[in-house]
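Both lines are quoted verbatim for reference:

——
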Amino acid sequence: MSMAEVVLYSRDGCCLCDDAREVLQRVRTRHPFALVERDIEADESLLRAYLERIPVVTIDGVEAFELFVDESALTRRLTGPSEPRATH
């Protein structure tokens, strides 16, 4: 099983982004994953897409969280079945 890639879209000076980063790092100590941070100010298209929504977190390319990261939900997503489940 390959390690999940988690991307945090954020920008400097964003308190919610700092909170999200702390949750990600805390969960990462128990359930390792590749963490990539993308500064939305470095790319105009990212800035337009995410400015009002950051932090946004994706897991393996799928949006999982915006504004707040729920630690228990993140843990479930990382440790759950590898088959994608529909959420209705």
